[in-house]
Design brief:
- Helices cover about 15% and strands about 35% of the residues.
- It is built from two helices and six strands.
- Strands 3-2-1-6-5-4 form a six-stranded mixed beta sheet, with helices on one face.
- By secondary structure, the chain is an alpha+beta fold.
């Protein structure tokens, strides 16, 4: 797995490696606003994840996910804040996005 100093660096590298769709969290899915495609937790896999901690600004705390649809048709990125700034999502999405150590 790669190591990145910044979120921007991670996003740029993942995009170079084919993770071109920008996903956003919805309550029970991830959604690409550009195409309107929504993927439920059963329709995608987390293939990479990177955690970034803001040294001076808690708003900089985030997790970068490399996501692939299970049918292999889409690869993209999902950025999620954690802690105070995290999104409201359902339990199935929480389980899907939990980082396995």
């Amino acid at each position: 797995m790669h190591a990145y100093e910044t979120l921007t660096e991670g996003l740029a590298d993942l995009k170079k490696r084919g993770f071109i769709t920008d996903f956003n969290l919805a309550f029970d899915s991830i959604k690409c606003f550009e195409t309107g495609v929504c993927l439920s937790p059963s329709q995608f896999e987390i293939v990479e994840n990177y955690r970034f901690e803001g040294n001076s600004d808690p708003a900089d705390e985030s997790i970068l996910f490399g996501v692939s649809s299970k049918d292999g048709q889409m690869k993209g990125v999902l950025v999620s804040a954690y802690g105070t700034y995290s999104n409201q999502i359902n339990e199935e999405m929480i389980k899907k996005l939990s980082i396995q150590q």
